[in-house]
Amino acid sequence: MPDDAIATAAASIEPPAVLGHCSGACGLDVLGPRRGFSVHPLMTVTPAGADFRGVWAAVDGSDPGALDTARTLAGVVGLRAVRVADRDRVAYHAAASIAANYLITVEAAAAELLASAGLDRQVLVPLARAALENWARVGPAALTGPVARGDTGTVARHRAAVAERAPQLLELLDALVGATRRLVTEPVPVQAAADPAAGGEGARDG
User: Fold this and answer.
1) C-alpha angle 122-125-126 in degrees, rounded to nearest 5
2) pTM for the whole thing?
């Protein structure tokens, strides 16, 4: 069900039912003037399913009882609940889309260009996994490659190769190079790792 259909579906259910939804981007307002809750697993789900054990889930509730229901449902499937308030939901969900959906878009672009050299996408898998694991461990400090080391000549040759072999990817490449240069010149402050469930702005529990 698309997010836009939640409000219509909720309006068709008579009180005093307690309503819930699993949207990441929607707040509780889509449920109308009813008691309600939300549980959004922070995990990609394909037709093959997903393993939710140990995965974070954004939860919220219109009152303490509804919030407890959300936490209980999350716990039943092994999710780790963290409260995300209505005003933070869209930013939270956009971050999730960048981390998962757009990651696939970038990897697909890399595989498309690699295919022009006669190689399969599987060649990239160990590299991509290592980069993600390094980022998980040390954050932006995991960045390597020609942009990070200021190798402008190589970056220019990359652009020329993409322009020749996969011009449809040129706009994406330019955007990625620009974003990477910004990351190099404006480093993101390193923050100490913390348990999201402990609370804080944008991730409030309790």
Assistant:
1) 125
2) 0.84
